[in-house]
Each structure stands twice: as structure tokens, then as C-alpha cells.
Design goal:
This protein is an alpha+beta fold. The protein has two helices and five strands; from the N terminus they run E-E-E-H-E-E-H.
């Protein structure tokens, strides 16, 4: 029987936001995770949700960080989360700068998604430009 790898979840704050690192035993990769960084009501306008879907699809097509949405049926909300699996080994020069750069990609992705959502809302006539 094959051994199941041990997975650890480490949480920390960076620039005021909560992040998680998923570490798998004996793997040179880690997964950076940022959950629920944008939330909208499930009872909102379907067109607004469509704008969010388009912005998420754009981010996933052109970005380095994967964005996904989750449904919380109890709270009737939809939340956006991001994740990125990266190489993380001790021989990477300036590992602290490398990790900082990877984390900053999350903020760029958030900004891009929010800007694109607003652009799609304007095109759909949901807000004035």
C-alpha cells in the first residue's frame, strides 16, 4: 500500500491579508492560497455574477495565479479565492524576495479581476462609466 503524503497548512498575514501555504511532505512545491478576498450575494443581479465570471475567466487565461469562486449556500454568498503552486526549494537565490514576488502576484490578480469586473459592468449597462 502506498503512503499518503502528509499535508500541512500554514497560515500567515502579508500586507494585512490572510494567506495559507499548503506544504506536502517531500515535495519541492508549495501552494499559496488566499481565500474569500471578494464576496458578493447570491441574491444579487445575475448580470453582475456574469461580469464576475468573465473577469475570473480572463484572469485565469492570462495570469499566473488561479482564481476560483465558491458558493456558501448557508450565507448565500459567492466568494473569490486564489491559489498558485510554486517551486520552493532552499537553493533558490534570495528565497525571501522570490516568495514576496509570488505573493505580490495575488494582489495584482485581485486588482485585475476587480478592474475587469467593473469594465464588464459598464459594458453591460449595470453602472455608469
Amino acid at each position: 500500500m502506498e503512503d499518503v503524503p502528509v499535508i500541512r497548512l500554514i497560515h500567515f498575514h502579508y500586507q494585512g491579508q490572510l494567506f495559507f501555504i499548503e506544504v506536502t511532505q517531500d515535495s519541492p512545491y508549495i501552494t499559496l492560497i488566499q481565500e474569500w478576498w471578494h464576496v458578493m450575494s447570491m441574491d444579487g443581479d445575475i448580470e453582475d455574477f456574469a461580469c464576475m465570471q468573465k473577469a475570473v475567466n480572463d484572469a485565469n487565461a492570462y495570469g499566473h495565479v488561479t482564481v476560483c469562486y465558491h458558493f456558501d449556500k448557508e450565507d448565500r454568498t459567492i466568494g473569490l479565492s486564489s491559489r498558485n503552486t510554486i517551486l520552493f526549494v532552499e537553493w533558490i537565490p534570495r528565497l525571501d524576495y522570490y516568495l514576496e514576488g509570488m505573493l505580490n502576484l495575488f494582489f495584482r490578480t485581485q486588482r485585475d479581476v476587480m478592474i475587469d469586473m467593473e469594465k464588464y459592468r459598464v459594458r453591460a449597462g449595470l453602472v455608469d462609466d
